[in-house]
Design goal:
Layout: E1 5-13, E2 17-19, H1 38-44, E3 47-51, H2 52-58, E4 70-74, E5 87-89, H3 93-103, E6 107-112, H4 114-122, E7 128-134, E8 142-143, E9 155-161, E10 167-172
Parallel strand pairs: 1-6, 1-7, 3-4, 3-6, 4-5
Antiparallel strand pairs: 2-8, 7-10, 9-10
């Protein structure tokens, strides 16, 4: 079965956390600058894939941040509110890929969070990682990777430094 390309476009603290202990990502707000190319990246994808906790956090935003994108939420529970035409999707890798294929997804942004990222990496489903290392030590929180994550070799496609101190590392994982 062919499958869509899955991209993890994610910010992490220097010490490897993608969210604070309570799941909050407000610590990232001062670092969001147009130079990072987020809007260009968003235009390049057709589908967003996120975990239930991330979806619930996004519901607190004033407006749905992914208009015109297909949206899948990895969860086994019904959604309390549907935004952006979101659909639920099982965490089972085969079922997930089948659902994305059936929807016609070609380029999928794995929005987060930590549990979803771990499942995707553990099953070798991430094709590309754009890792934005933010110049902060959180000391605690939700890590991007855990020690038991599946080993994988990636090819470095590029690196870039930004004016706000962020370093971007761009990797490709062989299929």
């Amino acid at each position: 079965m062919t499958r869509p390309e899955i991209i993890a476009y994610v910010a992490t603290s220097i010490d490897g956390y993608i969210a604070a202990k309570d799941g909050g990502v407000g610590w990232l707000n001062p670092y969001f600058i147009p130079e990072l190319g987020f809007h260009e990246f968003l235009a390049s994808i057709d589908t967003v894939l996120m975990g239930r906790n991330s979806y619930d956090q996004i519901l607190d935003f004033k407006t749905w941040p992914y208009p015109g994108k297909m949206s899948f939420v990895v969860t086994g529970r019904a959604l309390s509110r549907i935004e952006g035409g979101s659909r639920t999707i099982a965490a089972d890798p085969d079922a997930m890929m089948r659902a994305l294929n059936e929807a016609g997804s070609r380029r999928v942004w794995a929005v987060g969070g930590a549990i979803t990222y771990r499942g995707l990496f553990a099953n070798g489903l991430v094709d590309e990682l754009r890792l934005f290392v933010v110049p902060e030590l959180l000391g605690d929180g939700r890590p991007l990777f855990l020690a038991q994550d599946r080993p994988a070799k990636a090819d470095l496609l590029g690196e870039r430094r930004y004016s706000n101190g962020i370093a971007e590392l761009h990797y490709r994982f062989p299929r």
